[in-house]
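2024-03-11 09:14:02 INFO queue: dequeued item Kinesin motor domain-containing protein, len=74
2024-03-11 09:14:02 INFO validating residues
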Amino acid sequence: EDSKNNVNIVGLSETKIGSSIDLMEYISYGTGVRVTSQNGTNNDSSRSHAVLQITLKKKSKIHGKISFIDLAGS
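2024-03-11 09:14:37 INFO prediction written
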């Protein structure tokens, strides 16, 4: 957190998406770079957290926001 209590995540990036196809490509890329390994329950269990946040904007005004969060090993 910074002095204003904002959470800062190292390596976080924000990208403007122009279409649903672009969004799916970014999701596919993100899925591909996640670390996975076998554990006692699953053959392909995630070993990294993942966050996808979609913000709908029009002329810089936010009209909606949804967050998808996948915690490692869950």
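2024-03-11 09:14:37 INFO annotate: Helices lie at 20-33.
2024-03-11 09:14:38 INFO item closed
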